[in-house]
Amino acid sequence: MSPRQSFGRLWRRHPTLIIGGLLLLLMGLAAVAAPVLGTIDPQTIAPFDRLRPPDGQFWFGGDLIGRDVYSRTVYGARISLAVGLGVALFSIILGLAVGLLSGFVRLIDQILMRVMDGIMAIPSILLAVALIALTGASLTNVIIAITVAEVPRVARLARSVVLSLKEQPFLEAAVTAGTPFLAILWRHVLPNMLAPLLVQGTYIFASAVLTEAILSFIGAGTPPAIPSWGNIIAEGRTVFHIAPHLVLLPGLALSITVLAVNLVGDGLRDHLDPRFVSRL
């Protein structure tokens, strides 16, 4: 089958995966190429360009102190994607470790799960605000704070998969045959956890992007000197009635990114679900 035929088949089966992937790829390229795409330094202050409407030089207009909103929006993509990717990776790694321990070591299962339940009982935004208030506002601390709130969800998912796999005949046969635990983990457990963890990771990615924007909007996220979609929107909300583009255009970039990640997640879920594939 030629690449064109493979792409056509994938498009017919999972168009949301293709659309979401392309949108996310464009956002990623924009973030990487921010120094090239950003026509003006996002920190350059030009008082005479204060609240400048969009034009050929300031594509998204100027903010309250004359900074180029377009350049700040492009650089803000770096923050949002870095937070989303970092939180997704760390949450999966830590949650997988906790879920495996809880699923295989029954002695500490109840302790770990009660700790996870306690963390999940606290709203993620409040937990993140509290942690950032203790550690200080920075990109690293934002990633850590959001990760702490997301780990229990991955841990519970990993634990449920482990408990279901322990009842499967192929795993019981491997244990009976004396297969080393690490080999069982690598050959039988982790491959069966890949699909649900990938899908969960995309949802965590989208949730982290939104949470970072909310934290920056309320002043508890990245420092104001670092361009972030949340603090760009926060700065523009006070003049929304006379300069709505300061909120709408960065908000559109945020919405497109979250939509793209959710589309990728839905596409992966359909593509990796054998029940869905068998119907095609």
UniProtKB/TrEMBL annotation:
<keyword id="KW-0472">Membrane</keyword>
<dbReference type="GO" id="GO:0055085">
    <property type="term" value="P:transmembrane transport"/>
</dbReference>
<protein>
    <submittedName>
        <fullName>ABC transporter permease</fullName>
    </submittedName>
</protein>
<feature type="transmembrane region" description="Helical">
    <location>
        <begin position="169"/>
        <end position="190"/>
    </location>
</feature>
<dbReference type="GO" id="GO:0005886">
    <property type="term" value="C:plasma membrane"/>
</dbReference>
<comment type="similarity">
    <text>Belongs to the binding-protein-dependent transport system permease family.</text>
</comment>
<feature type="transmembrane region" description="Helical">
    <location>
        <begin position="125"/>
        <end position="149"/>
    </location>
</feature>
<keyword id="KW-1003">Cell membrane</keyword>
<dbReference type="InterPro" id="IPR050366">
    <property type="entry name" value="BP-dependent_transpt_permease"/>
</dbReference>
<keyword id="KW-1133">Transmembrane helix</keyword>
<keyword id="KW-0813">Transport</keyword>
<feature type="transmembrane region" description="Helical">
    <location>
        <begin position="202"/>
        <end position="222"/>
    </location>
</feature>
<keyword id="KW-0812">Transmembrane</keyword>
<feature type="domain" description="ABC transmembrane type-1">
    <location>
        <begin position="81"/>
        <end position="265"/>
    </location>
</feature>
<feature type="transmembrane region" description="Helical">
    <location>
        <begin position="242"/>
        <end position="265"/>
    </location>
</feature>
<dbReference type="Pfam" id="PF00528">
    <property type="entry name" value="BPD_transp_1"/>
</dbReference>
<feature type="transmembrane region" description="Helical">
    <location>
        <begin position="79"/>
        <end position="104"/>
    </location>
</feature>
<dbReference type="InterPro" id="IPR035906">
    <property type="entry name" value="MetI-like_sf"/>
</dbReference>
<dbReference type="InterPro" id="IPR000515">
    <property type="entry name" value="MetI-like"/>
</dbReference>
